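Students often ask why we bother encoding 3D structure as a string. The short answer is that it lets us treat folding as translation between two languages. Here is a chain of 460 residues written in the first language.
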Amino acid sequence: MSEFSKILIANRGEIAIRVMRAVNELGKRTVAVYAEEDKLSLYRFKADEAYRIGEGMGPVAAYLSIKEIIRVARHSGADAIPPGYGLLSENPDLVEACREAGIAFIGPSAETMRKLGDKASAQHIAIQAGVPVIPASEVLDDDMDAARKVAAEIGYPLILKASWGGDGRGMRPIAGPDELEEKILEGRREAEAAFGNGEGYLEKMITRARHVEVQILGDTHGHIYHLWERDCSVQRRNQKVVERAPAPYLSKAQRAEVCALGKKIAEFVGYECAGMVEFLMDMEIDKFYFIEVNPRIQVEHTVTEEVTGIDIVRAQILIAEGKTLVEVAGIADQSRVELSGNAIQCRITTEDPTNNFIPDYRRISAYRGATGMGIRLDGGTAYSGAVITRYYDSLLEKITAWAPTPEGAIARMDRALREFRIRGVSTNIDFAINLLRHPTFLNSEYHTKFIDETPELFEF
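And here it is in the second language, the structure alphabet:
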């Protein structure tokens, strides 16, 4: 494999800027693609070259058009494509289209993506690898009688999950048989709109669970290491709100156990590039169950970068160029991946917590970010004069705080959130501050239903 000279980022917003920064630090040129609705977005102007895609298509459909992505890559002379997260990031058809066009795909192979990106298939792989899984169905078809039968066999409560994609899209809790059909159809529509594929399956719902993720990095020479774990238990409507690394409630033995399980699955399929193996930890019996694999970078990768010192986005690019993990990050063996301190990430969104978190779409009239020791900002539209549109996700900015201790990271995050001044559009900043100050959060007693059970978080 040869080194890349020009990289097209098949994404938009915050993650597009994040990838561009890594590409620029490697001395390579960047190419951006943008839909008509994104013509004034900041990421477009940060790229060396930018091209409009999807004429006549919708604002999301433009980014889901593999034909358009490949067209621009050929026209611009780009020799590699990283997909970021969301949109086409888990679509194996893009990987194959890149191969046919002679363009490198910065991510796992199409075969690996099909095995692991399809969550139902990934469940079978976990079983074969000897990793515990939650009872679940096969991919559902249109036979609702068959769906009712398998639901009864697994037992309620259940959760419907989209086979492709992530970020909670297509996910629906199902309390009993009376709402089964409605929730399945509703989840399918959302998954189809978000990922272009409405397939889904049913899974047993663990009512008191923590969400633990293991970061994986593998090169093309057979070396696979974990970069430890993250806690992503604090969620609202199946969307992550706060992420932490390492998970503060795990013992040394539990940390070693879950990371070994994540690495075991990656080794079983010969995983290459960056990926995330997700687990639910049943709080009643302290047991880990495999959920799924995300064969891509994730929104919350920043906390892992802060506690390991490894630039995961940069590593992806170098791995795709054929470099070893020693060359990429100085990782000679697993013991060299060390944890340093504690990191926490909050997602600042343009939502109104006082009005059921309805997204707010207006112009930012004034913006002042946070800074100081141990604070990192990753954003795509966070600046005075930016217009927040209704077409895309409400994520405005990600803020990551690092400190030697969990308490120190929380204190730094609290201080940084209070430094923000954002006018003209509603945000969830006050909600995030209330969340950090809740004693249950500080003592790490929270779980995946934490926000639903604490109405005081919504009092301002």
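Translate back mentally: The domain at 135-204 is CATH 3.30.1490.20 (Dna Ligase; domain 1). Keep this in mind for the problem set.
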